[in-house]
Amino acid sequence: MRLSLQQLETFYWAARLGGFHAAARHQHLTQPTISARIQELEEQLGVRLFEREHGRCELTIDGQDALVHAERMLQLADEFGRLGQRRDPMRGLLRLGANESTALAGLAELLSRLKSMYDELRIELTVDIGAALSRKMAARELDVAILNDSANARHVIERTMGVSNLHWVAAPSLVGERKVTPEMLASLPVITVSQPSSNHKLVMKWFRSAGVEPQYVSSCNSLATILQLVAAGHGVAVMSPAIMRAEIESGAIQTLIVKPDLEQEKYLVAYQVERRGEGLETVVRMAAEILARNEVVIPPAVYGGR
């Protein structure tokens, strides 16, 4: 009996989601169906793919190797299924997503340059937090996105432009001393982008690396609003100075010097695999150049590719 795409898909989702029950929910199948497909696949391959214990399943060494091959085969199957749908990726509708840092410091220039280069391109724009954009990429609701959060989907290609250029910022009236530690900021109002954003995770990881929990954490999905609150002295936040140059120059906001250093996030351009081509490579290069020039992104040549 030959291997089937159904078996490979079931194996892929069981491995990615960490269990047969989760794979069953995702594929809208019963758990016994999932178990039967995995058992058939193991018998055909002659290896054990999962270690099953206490309702959980973990990949064996053979299973880890098989997952790499399964991802390749499923990606090829996706591409094969779209052979009749190929078109110029830079003509017609392009659904473009961007996080707010990009929107505030470079998106307008990127749109203008794309429209001047590709006069048959229509752009439908979505500005949202990275976690939401990554979900939309995984669900094929966007064609291209500029973000920090990986979509972690086999049909999405991700190119790293560099890392984010984030700093703790505050009004001098709230934080007079620029050199600060987690202990010093923990008692102040902290404002983050709403969970499950990478911004919130980064902030909490920084405090917890020092064994500290901030006392007051507020959340907001608008960087522009966070910026206004910080400038008014209502809290401290982790943001890119690129979106607050006027406030920094006027003295309304200052960047803080912190120990330990913030762990900067990867900045990505993600796109659907069927969109790949020279046009999308142009988008990647253009976005990287604009965001690096505007100091939203620190390119690999500067941070060393760490």
From TrEMBL:
Q: Which UniProt keywords apply?
A: DNA-binding, Transcription, Transcription regulation
Give the matching CDD domains.
Answer: PBP2_LTTR_substrate
Family annotation (Pfam families): HTH_1 (PF00126), LysR_substrate (PF03466)
Q: Entry's InterPro entries?
A: LysR_HTH_N (IPR000847), LysR_subst-bd (IPR005119), WH-like_DNA-bd_sf (IPR036388), WH_DNA-bd_sf (IPR036390)
> Which top-level group of life is the source organism from?
Bacteria
Q: How far does the signal peptide extend, from start to end residue?
A: none
What the entry lists under SUPFAM superfamilies is as follows: Periplasmic binding protein-like II, Winged helix' DNA-binding domain
**Molecular function in Gene Ontology:** DNA-binding transcription factor activity; transcription cis-regulatory region binding
Q: Where is the HTH lysR-type domain?
A: 3-60
Protein family: Belongs to the LysR transcriptional regulatory family.
What is the name of the protein in this document? HTH lysR-type domain-containing protein
Which organism does this sequence originate in?
Answer: Trinickia symbiotica
